[in-house]
Structure formats: structure tokens, C-alpha cells
Specification:
The structure holds two protein chains of two kinds. By secondary structure, chain A is mainly α. Chain A contains twelve helices and two strands. Chain A has a two-stranded antiparallel sheet with strand order 1-2. In chain A, strand 1 and strand 2 form a beta hairpin. The longest helix of chain A is centred in the first third of the chain and has 39 residues. Chain A starts with a helix and ends with a helix. Chain B has 13 helices and two strands. In chain B, strand 1 and strand 2 form a beta hairpin. In chain B, helix 4 crosses helix 7. Chain B is an all-alpha fold. Chain B folds into two domains: 48 residues; 228 residues, MetI-like fold, CATH 1.10.3720. In chain B, strands 1-2 form a two-stranded antiparallel ribbon. Classes of the chains: A mainly alpha, B mainly alpha. Chains A and B meet through helix 2, helix 4, helix 5, helix 6 and helix 7 of A and helix 1, helix 2, helix 4, helix 5 and helix 6 of B.
Amino acid sequence: MNRDPKTMFTETPLVRSKFRQEAAAKWIFAGMAAAMIVPLLLILGYLVERAWPSLSLGFILDVPIRGMKEGGIWPAFVGTIYLVFISLAVSAPIGILAAVYLNEYAKDNWLNRIINLAVINLAGVPSIVHALFGLGAFVYAAKFGYSIISASLTLAIMTLPVIVASTREALASVPRSFREACWNVGATRWQTIQAIVLPNSISGILTGVILQVSRAAGETAPIMFTGAVFFKAVQKGDLFPYQLHEQCMALSMHLYTISTQVPGVKESIPFATAVVLLGLVLVVNAAAITLRVWLRNRKKW
Amino acid sequence: MTVPDSKQPANFSFAVREAHRPAWAVFGERTLTGLIYLCGISAIVFVLSIFVFVFKEAAPVLFGGKFSLAQFLFSTEWYPTSEVNKRYGVLAMIVGTFSVTGVAMVIAVPFGLGAAIYISEFCGPKVKETLKIVIELLAAIPSVVWGFIGLTVMSKLIVQYTGAPVGVNILNGGIILALMSVPIIVSIGEDALKAVPDSFREAGIALGATRWQLIWRVLMPAAKNGLLAAVLLGVGRGVGETMAVLMATGHAVHIPSGILDSVRTLTANIAAELGEAPAGSDHYRVLFLTGVLLFTLTFAVNLIADLIVRGIRKK
């Protein structure tokens, strides 16, 4: 029996125009999706092409010379790593525990609705307002001065919602029956979390932590007025060039500086800096995505 | 998800636990639980302290007597470093912020929602997965890189194709902001479409509707709140974006007369001048006041978006 909808019935002009409409709609929407992605790929390709003369491992490992007009980006690269790891050390524990609270302890009452709202708002506060907060709270009120500590703490608060959101999702995906089984053998709530919930969601939590790294590495505004500096003399290849109470350079800040504030920079250097920063962020994100896909495929429940 | 209190059978479980758990373990667990509660409310503490600290720096000028809030909000005269006649009016920056965000939304809303519809309704699972990953990577590009793209690539294209005297202007900032806010619009919009029950789609198909009719007559009305929230979050992102607009919109403090004019936004103004304003000066405090204004704006936008999304969940 003929079940093909296009030939099963006699096609009237109305039906034909309906299918034409549908096909047109499909292509228009596909075009819209493509229009957001294709130009971007072209732009990224262009960035890499312009950066090509300077791109090499030596570019990352070298220090800037002649007033940042030539040379590499080593001090900025190390500075970014410093900022990312210190902010991670602060925001990961707080964020994970906050997510544990929201998912495992919180009941649906007004306090927790306010907490939810606060998390959403923390994610929505403009980065420059975070910078103002960091300046007022850490640089002046807490007397940390312009330092790596101030900048990292500002970054930590800014990236907290990233960790809270993804950790929560990871915790929520652990089936409730797992917890119930554990409670029924007499475990307390924390014992259940520690022995059952956290081990079963650790990869999801890790994804959140990785996303935090990528976010913190790319931010400029919050560190601009709290601890990042235009230039700092650093020895080539020095792994620990900064003290915690000192200011440091950072990749994002360096890109801003050499592309807007320093005249006469060798042309390919800002492009190469942008490509390195972009590459760093995209590689870290790709790692998080891979981890998530791998995790979903091997899930037992 | 909320886990209700587990009522453990108290009469025997207590006896067992007390017998086998040393005091330090019980104490440790209490401490940890306390710590978890503390971290739980930390988000509130942070949001409040952001407001308090920013407001505290701005307060002396706000309540200092010679400052008028009306002038701050409705004057276009911004002469913070003038010797004789200091003026702090941010109207031009407010207009700048909204013109750039407006242009961005004109581009990003149709394309973002179109892409969300395509991902949610038209494409197969493989394409869907790929597109979602690409969108996620798009969202990860740092704003300073977007700014750099605006400054180098986009400004050249704009000068070449529109004949504008300078390439860093509203159009440039708008396009860059549009590309930046598309990922958020797509992902929230797709969530909203996914939240429409399948029975709606089935009913539409059973009546002989094509996909397009289904989307236009059934899904869009059913998901309109979620789509609105997606747009609002896009607006929030646009208003709050700093580095990209700082680098891509030029620095002219004036009411723009066209889309090819340079403007300065509220965020860019803070970023550009905070470094030069001596700490504690009026100029410095007015910049913090601008921060309070921005905080309030984005807070309102996020609150409304959240209420709309919550409304959907209730249904």
C-alpha cells in the first residue's frame, strides 16, 4: 500500500504550496544558522593567516622586547596561568560546595529562591562592575593593593556561577535511587554525598572546573584595574617570575595593550597574541566538551 | 532538584551510629555541613557585597551636595577633567549603550532565534550535536578577542563597504555584540522550544500542518515567554559587555546621529577612564556611580528574564 504522503493523496495546489513553504522555511533557518557560523570561521582563518609570520613555540617562550614592539609573550602567558590557577583554587571549593548545598540540602523556600536568583545575577553582572568591586573591596578595603591576589579573587567571584551551574547539573544527574539506597543502610547525608553522589558526578564537576579555567583566562576588564599591568620585566623562560603581592601581565590584557595603546607594534604580533589566547581558550573548552561526551557515552544508568 | 528530609528511623540508627563513629567524625561532619551551608549562601553575600562596595565608593559624591542625579542621568556634558567647569552627564553614554545594543539585537534576535528553530526543529541529531558544540565554542571566545576582531577585521570591512570615515562605530560594535550574544540567544531559545510538549507537535502534524505552519502557529506562541527570556538575556549581555565595545565603537562622547557614528558606552567609559581618575576624586566616584547604574540595569533585566523562565517552569 502506498504510504508516501506526497503520492498517497492527490496533490492540490494548496498542498504543493505548503510543501514549498516548508522547504523554503527550512533553507532560510539553515541559512540563518550558517550565517552566524561561517563568517566567524572565515574571520578566525584570517586571524591565523595574519598571525602566521609570528606564530611559533618561540613566540610563546620569548619575552617582549623594544617596548613590546617585538619579541614574544612569555610574561603574559605565565601571568594568565597564575591568575587562572589562583582564582580556580578559590572558586572551585566554594562553587562546588555551594552547588552541593543547592542540590542536596536546599528545600524549595524563599531563601533558596533568593540564592538561585543571586547565582543568576552574579553571572549577569557586567565584568566592568566586577572590576569596580575588586578595586573597592580587595585593592582598597582589604589592602591587598594592585596584586595577583586581588585580580585572582575578583576573577574567582566572577567565574563562580560557571562552576555552580555545571556542578549542580552534574549532581542532579545522579539518580535519586542511589541516594535512597545509601540512606537506607543508615548513612548520614554527608556520608551519602561523599561516598555516592560526588564519585558519580566527578567528571561533570570537572567539566565545570575546566569551563571556569577558559572563562578566567579570557577575561580582561576585571583584572585591568586590580592586578594586571601593561609591562613587567621577566627573564626568558622563568617559570615563577611573580610574587603574589605583585602585579603581573596577562594575555588578554597584553592583547588589549599592544593592539590599542602601543604604536608601531610589528604587525603580526597582536594577531599572534589573539590566536594564542583564542587557541588556549578553545582547546580548554574542547577538552571540557570531549570529557562530557565521553562521560555521557559511558554512563551506566 | 530538591531532596526532602530523609527521616531515618531514629530509634535504632542512632544507637548504631553512636556506637561506631568516633566523636571527631561526628564533629567533622557537623563542621562540613556548616561549611556547605555557608558556601550555599555565599552567592547572596557576593552579590550584596558587590552592590555595597561599588555603592560605598560612589556614595560620597551622590550625597555630597553639589552633585545632581538629574544632571548625571539627563545631561550629555561629560567633562570630568575640565579645570573650571567639571560636568558629569552620562546621557550620551546611555544612548551609546542602547544604540549599540539595539543594533546588535536587530541582527542577533532574528538570526539567533532562526538558528534556535533550525537546531530544535529541522536538523537531524548529528547536525544538531555539531551545531550545539560550535555554538558553545562561539560563546567561549574571550571578549577582548572579539574587540580585536572589531578593531582590525570588521573596521576595515566597514570602511570599505560603507565609506564611513572611521571603522570603529555603532555598526561595528553592534555586529560584534550580535555575534557575541547569538550563542546565549540560541541556547536559551532552543531550551524554550524543547520545553514545548511533544503532544503539541503531534497534534499539529495530525491536522496536516507542515513544519513551518507548526512552528509559526503552534511552537512560537507556546514558547514565546522562553524566547522572550532568551532575547532579554541577550540584551543583558549586550548592555554589560565591556572590552569588545571598548575596542570596537570608537570613543566619541556625543549623541550619535547615525549608525556610522562613533559612540562611547557606559561600560567602555568606566574601562577607559578609571585608570586615569585619581582614587577618591569626584571623577572616580562618578565612575563608580556609573557602575551602580549598570548593576541596577542588568539586575533588572536578569530578574525579569528569570521571572519569565520561572513562569514557564510552573506551567
